[in-house]
Design goal:
3-stranded parallel sheet, about 25% helix, globular, 3 helices, 3 strands, alpha/beta
Length: about 70
C-alpha cells in the first residue's frame, strides 16, 4: 500500500466497496481463485465486463451477470 501511495498517489482499499462496471482478475491469488461467479456479481453492475487475464474462471463465470473476456 505504501509503495502505491508513494508512486501513484493512490490509496488502496482494504476491501472492494460499491459496484463496478469492470471486474478484472489478473493473478491467481487464493482469495480470488476461491470466489464464485455470484461472489463477483455482488461487486458488479448489471452486465459488467469480467476480464480474466489468465483464463482462471473460464466456464465458471455466468453470462447472466457478465460479459466475459480473456486472453
Amino acid at each position: 500500500k505504501k509503495e502505491v501511495k508513494e508512486e501513484y498517489d493512490i490509496d488502496l482499499a482494504a476491501k472492494p466497496e460499491g459496484k463496478y462496471d469492470v471486474v478484472c482478475v489478473a493473478v491467481q491469488h487464493k482469495n480470488y481463485k476461491n470466489m464464485t461467479s455470484s461472489d463477483f456479481a455482488k461487486l458488479a453492475t448489471d452486465k459488467s465486463i469480467f476480464v480474466d487475464i489468465k483464463g482462471i474462471f473460464k466456464d465458471k463465470i455466468s453470462e447472466d451477470h457478465f460479459i466475459y473476456w480473456s486472453l
